[in-house]
Amino acid sequence: MIREYRTIQEVNGPLMLVKQVQGVAYDELGEIKLPDGSVRRCQVLEVNGDTAVVQLFEPSAGINLAESKIRFLGHPLQLGVSGDMLGRVFNGMGQPIDGGPAILAEEFRDINGLPMNPAARDYPNEFIQTGISTIDGLNTLVRGQKLPIFSGSGLPHANLAAQIARQAKVLGDDAGNFAVVFAAIGITFEEADFFIQDFRRTGAIDRTVLFTNLANDPAVERIATPRMALTAAEYLAFEKGMHVLVILTDITNYAEALREVSAAKKEVPGRRGYPGYLYTNLATIYERAGRQLGKPGSITLI
Fold it and tell me: Whole-model pTM?
C-alpha cells in the first residue's frame, strides 16, 4: 500500500529530508504533492533508519514544508519501451519532446538494469562501419565492443558524434537491422538543436532513438539519461534482435553531475572532488554493452 507522508523536514537546494518513513528503498521514485495540487517528482538518494534523503527532478521553489505531502511509488525510475521509439526524440527522462504522440509501451523497464553476466557474453565479432577512416582503418569498431573517444575542450566532438551516428552501418544480411541510440548529456540548447536538425536533414532520425538532456536540467536527470539510452538499446537488441550502436556524449558532463550530487549529500570527495565510486558507477554503464549467447542482437558503445 502506498503511504503519504507529511514529514518533510528540510529542503536544501535540490535535496529534501523526509522523516518517519517505512519500507523506502534506494533509487525509489517519489511524488511530492503541493498545496495547489501540482506534483513534482523525486528520487531516493539515501536511506538511514526512518530518514530518507530525496533529490528533486524539478526546482524546489514554492514547496511548503507544512502542507506538502510526499508518497513513494515502490519502484525505481522506469522507461516504457517499444519498437515505435525509433525515429523519436526524448528528453533525459524518456518523455517525447518532438511533438509526436506518447509511446504505447510494450513493457516498462527499470533503467538501472544489470551488467551483462560474463558467462552469458558472446565474443565480439563483425564490425560496424562508421565512415571515419581513422576508426575503420586503425581502430575498428566491432559489434559488442566499447570504444572511448577522447576530446579536448573546444574540439568538434559533437560534430564527430553526429557524423558517426549519421554514417554508421552494418554490412551484409543485417544491413536493415541496425539502429542508433544517441544520448546527449548536459548539452546546450544550440547543440541539441544541431543534433535534431542534422539527423532530420540526413534522414538518420528514422533509425535513431535520440535522448537530449540540457545543461539547465537537474543533475539527477543527467545521471538517468545514459541509463535511459541503454535500457532502450537493450530492448531493441535483445528483444527485437537488432544491432544497436549507442553513442553517449559526453561522459564528462555525467561525471560532473555525479560530483554535484555527491557534494550535495556531503560525501567525502575523491580526486578533483569526484566521488570515490565514480569509476564503479561508470562501469555500471559500460558493462551493459555486448553480445549475449543465443541472441542475434548486439549493443556497441561509443
Answer: 0.89
